[in-house]
Amino acid sequence: MDHEEHLQRMSGVYDPDWTQEEIEHELVRLRGLLRIPTLTSEERAIVKDTLAFWEDVNGY
Q1: What is the pLDDT of residues 6-23, one digit of tens each?
Q2: Which residue from 30, 35, 52, 60 puts its CA 20 to 30 A from 7's CA?
Q3: Is the CA virtual torsion 53, 55, 56, 57 positive or negative?
Q4: In this structure, are residues 18 and 57 in contact, taking their beta carbons and an 8 Å threshold?
Q5: Considering the chain, what percentage of its residues have pLDDT values greater than 90?
């Protein structure tokens, strides 16, 4: 997996048909990624932006 694929995979994919349980699982996953000390600043920014999007779209 190259760097671009890795970033895309880490950022998650929004699917409006996901159940509440799947959404909550994705939020937990994204929050967990932010705890990884070896993330680059670019990766951390992607995760933060994705988490903010998920929280906004799902009312968290």
Answers
A1: 555 655 566 667 788 988
A2: 60
A3: positive
A4: no
A5: 40
Task: Give the integer Cα–Cα distance in Å for 2 and 28.
Answer: 25
Question: What is the identity of the amino acid at 40?
Answer: T
- Residue 39 buriedness (CB in 10 A; 0-12 / 13-18 / 19+): middle
| Structure tokens given for 47 | 């995760």
List the structure tokens of 26. 């994705």
Angstrom distance (rounded) from CA 59 to CA 37: 28
Identify the residue whose tokens are 């000390």: 37
- The beta-carbon contacts of 21-24 under 8 Å, at least 24 apart in sequence, are 23/54, 23/58
